[in-house]
Amino acid sequence: MGLRKVKPMTPGTRTTILPDFAEITASKPEKSLLRPMKRSGGRNNYGDTTSRFRGGGHKRRYRVIDFKRNKDNIPGVVKSIEYDPNRSSRIALICYSDGEKRYILAPIGLEVGDSVMSGEKVEPKVGNCMPLENIPVGLTIHNIEMHCGKGGQLARSAGAEAQLAAKEGNYAIVNMPSGEIRKVFIKCRATIGQIGNIDHQNISIGKAGRTRWKGRRSHVRGRAMNPVSHPMGGGQGRLGRHPVSPTGVLSKGGKTRNKRKPSNKHIIRRRKK
Question: Angle at the Cα of 129 (from 182 to 154), degrees rounded to 5?
Answer without folding.
Answer: 35
